[in-house]
Amino acid sequence: MKLREVVQYFNSLLPLEDVAHSDYSLNGLQVGDLDSEVEKVAFAVDACMASFQRAGLAGAQLLCVHHGLFWGKPMAVTGTHYRRMKYLLDEGLALYAAHLPLDMEPELGNNAGLADALELKQRKPFGDYHGVQIGVKGILASELSLEQVLDRLELSRESALGVLPFGPDRVKSVGIISGGADKEVGQALRDELDLYITGELNHQVYHACLEGGINLISAGHYFTETYGVQNLMKKMNADIGLETTFIDVPTGL
Q: Cα–Cα distance between 101 and 225 in angstroms, integer?
């Protein structure tokens, strides 16, 4: 299958145009010859040398990531950036990136995946970012303790990046924005939600949660953004007869 066909397939699934003026990532194909052949596609969270090398060893011709190499400003092709680019070009490994489009996609995205894990009902867009709703909020089918929420995410208080238990003991309403969106807890407070789930945790949000009376689970930036690439991989498996593989390179953050 031609690379251009795979790129068109990804572009048809993801809301690239919705964030064209708000996402500073270069979404779409970042590196690659559109006329090259693709037989195997690797999926990973980050465009890093570890992901590149493992994708190359797996025999992939294309790597699809959430965090790409280009972030809204010119970059000199030197140092780490040079070595990464050289590896991709030497190995003929194409790179496709989807940042906010893969956070917000309502069925395949990172936030949708977290909501699916919690079996969240009555879902609505949530989390304004430059006029675009990139998260999701909803209602649990039944009230859960924080431990039960963590268990559904296959986490614990010890394995999560952080837990602020400052809201109701039994959680019903939940807001979710994956990645580095801890400061957006203010939007969850305005919506009077019981729990806010995100990836990172900043010192500055502690007292906002304490005084606002809300629970917050920081599940890890990397962890919360594994859902989208894996969902996209499963979708491709169902739609297209290309071989795929998931490259897991956790950071613990």
A: 12
Give the helix, strand, coil percentages of the chain, each rounded to 5. 35, 25, 35
38 burial level (CB within 10 Å; 0-12, 13-18, 19+): buried
pTM greater than 0.85 (yes/no): yes
CA-to-CA distance for 200 and 182, rounded, in angstroms? 6
Q: Quick one: angle between helices 226-239 and 3-13, nearest 10? A: 120
Residues 5-23 have pLDDT tens digits of 999 999 999 999 999 888 9
What percent of the chain is modeled with pLDDT above 90? 96
End-to-end CA distance of the chain: 36
Query: Do residues 100 and 11 lie in contact, with contact meaning Cβ atoms separated by under 8 Å?
Result: no
163-208 tens-digit pLDDT: 999 999 999 999 999 999 999 999 999 999 999 999 999 999 999 9
Contacts of 151 (CB under 8 A, 6+ apart): none
Domain that holds residue 178: 105-224
Query: Do residues 223 and 202 touch, judged by C-beta distance below 8 A?
Result: no
Please state, in angstroms and rounded to a whole number, the distance separating the CA atoms of residues 135 and 127: 5
CATH number of residue 90's parent domain: 3.40.1390.30
- Write down the residue that tokens 């807890």 correspond to: 185
> Please, are residues 97 and 65 in contact by the beta-carbon 8 Å criterion?
yes
At which of 102, 132, 147 does a domain end?
Answer: 102
